[in-house]
Amino acid sequence: MTQIPVQQLGRTLQIEILRHNPRDPDSVPHLQTFEVEEADAMTLFIALNEIRETQDPSLQFDFVCRAGICGSCGMIINGRPGLACRTLTHQLPQRITLAPLPAFELIGDLSVNTGKWMRGMSERLETWVHRQDLEQSDLDSLEAPMEPQLAEQLYELERCIECGCCIAACGTAQMREDFVGAVGLNQITRFRLDPRDERSDAQFYELVGDETGVFGCMTLLGCEDMCPKDLPLATQIAFLRRRMVMAG
Amino acid sequence: MHTIYTDVLVIGGGLAGQRAAIGARRRGQEVIVLSLVPAKRSHSAAAQGGMQASLGNCLGGAGDNEDIHFADTVRGSDWGADQEVVRMFAHTAPKAIRELAAWGVPWNRVERGEREITVDGKKQTIREADAAHGLITSRNFGGTQKWRACYVSDGTGHAMLYTMSNQAIAAGIPVHERMEALALIHADGRCHGAIVRNLMSGELVAYVARATCIATGGFGRIYRVSTNAVINEGMGAAIALETGVAALGNMEAIQFHPTGIFPAGILVTEGCRGDGGLLLDGAEHRFMPDYEPEKKELASRDVVSRRMEEHIAAGHGAKTRFGEHLWLDIRLLGAAHIDTKLREVKEICQYFLGVDPVRELIPVRPAQHYSMGGVRTDHHGHSPQLRGLFAVGEAACWDMHGFNRLGGNSVAETVVAGMIVGEAIADFCESPEGALTLSTALVEDFGRREARHLATISDGHGDENAFDLIRRMQETMTAKVGIFRHAERLEEAVSSLQDLQRRSRNISLRSSAAGANPELVAAYRLQRMLKLAQCVAYGALQRTESRGAHYRADFPRRDDANWMRRTLAVWPDAKATLPNLGYEPLDIMRMEIPPGWRGYGARDYIENPQTALRQEQIEAVLATLEGADPETRQAALMPFKHLLPEHLRGPNQRLGEQS
Ligand SMILES: Cc1cc2nc3c(=O)[nH]c(=O)nc-3n(C[C@H](O)[C@H](O)[C@H](O)COP(=O)(O)OP(=O)(O)OC[C@H]3O[C@@H](n4cnc5c(N)ncnc54)[C@H](O)[C@@H]3O)c2cc1C
């Protein structure tokens, strides 16, 4: 019969956190270790809240949905970017190191400004359906049909939650601030695939046909390896690159 | 104090807030949206199962229309809803979904030909019509007569919110992220904007606006076990309440969702049961048909949640060291279905439970899920008490859900209401009433008041800890103001909350960190959450009947004779520990469907004498209209189209009809 998994108990976790509060002129980045008694089904969401509630109320981090859906809690967990809310401590060694995602503006401790970065990316790549008649669309008539498989393919690409893990895992993004990353390129492939978007390949080329876009990728595949939603990012980038070579 | 002027201030960047913002922006108003988090991370993103709109494209939806959607919603609400609002909603929902389809949401589509479905535990083969191929499809949900929940796999809210946010970016609407509204600026019954705190720097900023719209979502986090995001703390409703003027409606109407995973409370969608999943007890017996022979697992949520708790109380739960729970079985749907239509569910089970739902059962138990109550508004989302204040989405009590919301009707409400309220906001701004007429002294006054309040907390030397008090509040609500309510426990809850309110004035902070200081945030939110919790508990204590999700074990019947009334809570005295409750009547003589049996749940209720009168009247009116078209008959009973903006009044075309 099905059982809720129960792991070994009795571990005292040592959670080492890279701390820094840029609002405080006296703050310097440093590692601080907290001890937490591991509980059943403990996630990093639970552990970090426990630290804040009982040990250090100034600790900064971001959680929203705590269900792996909203993308707020990307951080570096033992050297790898991932979503903290759905990381179970029992899958980690007793010593856990947490650091904020690199390449984003630091708000404090584990909290980074992914929102600002993503909005900038969206504005720059115009990640929305471009259509002449959007404002006048007739809402009374039957909707335009779409092939069921196409709708599913679009959703496949749209599952991206803009968590920033692919940026943190990307060699180019560490070197070039203006690289749009896998998250941006994936969105371009999504809108390119969408027949509702009237943009041509030439127009997409304008947006990503250079080193800040599709030609900046060094195909190190970090993005795809680290994507919490298992999006086929490297394949998408390779495909887009071929298309852009043809368009450019 | 730094002051920002705009025409429209929308507090909340979820589906409702952004759709209202787009509407007002298209009418030429300058709009700013505030959000605690990046807009795409708002809790709307977590909606999984679907959005109700009566398109009727797929076989299970065939024959669906606004009338059936209307009737299902009214029954779902246990006759607590405003029926005119439900009509406005059901009529506009198909337009809302078609708009989103044009804007980019990849709705799942009907595929022509044969396919296998699971109904009542058995496989069936059905055939989808050729003509429907490629139109938006829908799935079955609880409490509905038709398959009406349109979906994008089980990431419906995510897809909707991304499309909505992208369109808001396209429209050039700024979203000021990580900004928290702390107080509404108001005087003489007119709202002028808000005092806002920057959650990165801790700075206070004033936003002055002609119209202010609260779109802050639900307040599930006043409970310990909730499906809601951790930011769902109801601050929008709370700051409206703190004006002492604006009223909150039906705060005691709290929905518990049948399938929160146990024990974490993370949701797995109603789509699991809609698609054919079953509920099993500790002995792996399918128990819902024993209680609800008509709708079984697909009765409305309030009914299913109560039956589950009843069954556990009767000793049939599965026992674990965390406590007792029941099982959700979706194994029968098969790997192919789960991998495409329920993939978020699969991920949640894998990551949080270590369970593969293709092969294993999912442990579930009801968890707090939705707030039917909120800032009371008129048909256009305007507060009747505080002019210039609007509310939309889960934060509002527009009142289409009454005492129980149907699954899929909430994301539908957010966009439909956003479309309607966005227009109303623009109308207001264009009217003479919408002129900006406040004095800067008033703004400074409110700013100083908030700064003082924060300083009082920061400098406090009491011996209370904010996090500790939050936990106590949440435990009180889950233990005493849950699914089964009783005078004694409710009285205990009310007095515990009063006690917590007093204690919350004696907090001392351990940290004085520069910036927003998370401990300070917890402390001031706690004080506001306690007020909301008290509106829920005290409202529940006063309502001596059972209606929808509000179930009183000591008053188990719905009482139409005494309780065809909506609760209104106001909090005029900041130092008080209880709200003032008032009631507004629900007029049976104006209802299109007078109260009756819902088609599931208890058959036993106390009738209101007006019900029979209204029924006679309806029959008499309809008798004079024999042969008239459905629209004319409907309009003779309860006209509503005049309440909609003109461009939303047209008939909805369906498959097989001429446009
Ligand atoms: C797990 C889950 C699954 C669901 N699935 C479905 C479903 O399948 N179908 C369905 O119909 N419904 C579903 N619902 C319900 C539905 O998702 C919500 O009711 C709806 O999305 C609420 O949208 P909203 O725009 O009103 O609020 P939200 O999306 O919650 O947005 C609130 C916004 O307000 C902001 N905010 C809050 N307070 C402040 C403040 N003080 N200052 C500034 N900004 C503030 C937040 O940052 C956020 O941007 C589900 C709910 C949950 C919890």
Give an overview of the whole structure.
The complex is a heterodimer of chains A (248) and B (659). Chain A is of the alpha+beta class and 248 residues long. Chain A has 9 helices and 7 strands. Residues 1-7 of chain A have low confidence and may be disordered. Chain B has 659 residues and is an alpha/beta fold. Chain B is built from 17 helices and 24 strands. The longest helix of chain B is centred in the C-terminal third of the chain and has 25 residues, at 518-542. Chain B is globular. The mean pLDDT of chain B is 96. The chains are: A alpha+beta (248), B alpha/beta (659). At the A-B interface, α1, α2 and α3 of A face α3, α4, α10 and α15 of B. Flavin-adenine dinucleotide (FAD) binds next to α1, β2, α4, β9 and α5 of chain B.
The helix-and-strand class of chain A reads: alpha+beta
Taken in chain order, the helices and strands of chain A follow as EEHEEEEEHHHHHHHH
Main interface pair? A-B, 74 and 95 residues
Number of helices of chain A: 9
In summary, what is this structure?
The complex is a heterodimer of chains A (248) and B (659). Chain A has helices at 44-54, 114-125, 148-158, 165-168, 171-175, 181-193, 201-208, 222-226, 233-247, and strands at 12-19, 30-37, 74-77, 80-83, 95-99, 106-108, 111-112. Chain A is an alpha+beta fold and 248 residues long.
List the helices and strands and how they pair.
The complex is a heterodimer of chains A (248) and B (659).
Chain A: E1 12-19, E2 30-37, H1 44-54, E3 74-77, E4 80-83, E5 95-99, E6 106-108, E7 111-112, H2 114-125, H3 148-158, H4 165-168, H5 171-175, H6 181-193, H7 201-208, H8 222-226, H9 233-247
Parallel strand pairs in A: 1-5
Antiparallel strand pairs in A: 1-2, 3-4, 3-5, 6-7
Helix pairs in contact in A: 3-6, 6-9
Chain B: E1 3-11, H1 15-26, E2 31-35, E3 51-52, H2 66-76, H3 83-103, E4 113-119, E5 122-128, E6 138-139, E7 149-150, H4 156-170, E8 175-177, E9 179-187, E10 190-198, E11 204-214, H5 235-241, E12 248-249, E13 254-261, H6 271-274, E14 278-280, H7 288-291, H8 301-316, E15 318-320, E16 323-329, H9 335-341, H10 343-353, E17 362-371, E18 374-376, E19 389-391, E20 396-397, H11 409-430, H12 440-458, H13 466-480, H14 487-503, H15 518-542, E21 558-559, E22 565-570, E23 580-585, E24 605-606, H16 609-623, H17 630-637
Parallel strand pairs in B: 1-2, 1-11, 2-8, 11-19, 18-20, 21-24
Antiparallel strand pairs in B: 3-7, 4-5, 6-7, 9-10, 10-11, 12-18, 12-22, 13-17, 14-16, 15-16, 16-17, 22-23
Helix pairs in contact in B: 1-4, 1-11, 2-3, 3-11, 5-15, 13-14, 13-15, 14-15
Bound molecules: flavin-adenine dinucleotide.
